[in-house]
Design brief:
The protein is α/β, with parallel strands linked by helices and 194 residues long. 27% of the residues lie in helices and 18% in strands. It has 5 helices and 7 strands; from the N terminus they run βαβαβββαβαβα.
Amino acid sequence: MGLPSVFIRLTGCPLRCAWCDTAYAFTGGRRMNLATILDAVAGYGARQVCVTGGEPLAQKNCLALITSLCDAGYEVSLETSGALDIGVVDPRASRIVDVKAPGSGESARNRWQNLSLLGPRDELKFVLANRADYEWAGRVIAEHGLERRCPILFSPVQEMLTPVDLAEWILADRLPVRFQLQLHKRLWGNMRGK
């Protein structure tokens, strides 16, 4: 967070989280070949590139895109729902895995095998809608010893859980997590890229 980054948003997602803020990514977009994408990314002058979606791993050329970006020398991260296998991702890319809490309506889709694939360069993200989600996430962290694997992020669902409440819960419980807000939304709202 805080570094100039290029977001590459891929169309399509097999999940339907109750609080999804990017439903526009379920359809539409435009087809681009790898060379065109790499040229567009280079035009921004940023070294950080985040491949996101929808669910990027549901797209057949996502893995080739990640590898091409890594080959071009970018610091690449993949934001994924955690419902699909992250073991196939180029090891040079960091993986940001969203663990779906019950409030999302998609917690049954979590691919728990992904947790054992995480390393110190990866991150786990819990997007939380309420206190019940928060307590569930705390139990998941404790049961799997996740604080020893990689950084863990807790983020409130906009307009469902106030950032202050979440921050206070984390402090009171001394959870080994980082508090996260979607900085780009704070700065530019829900504006879409070009």
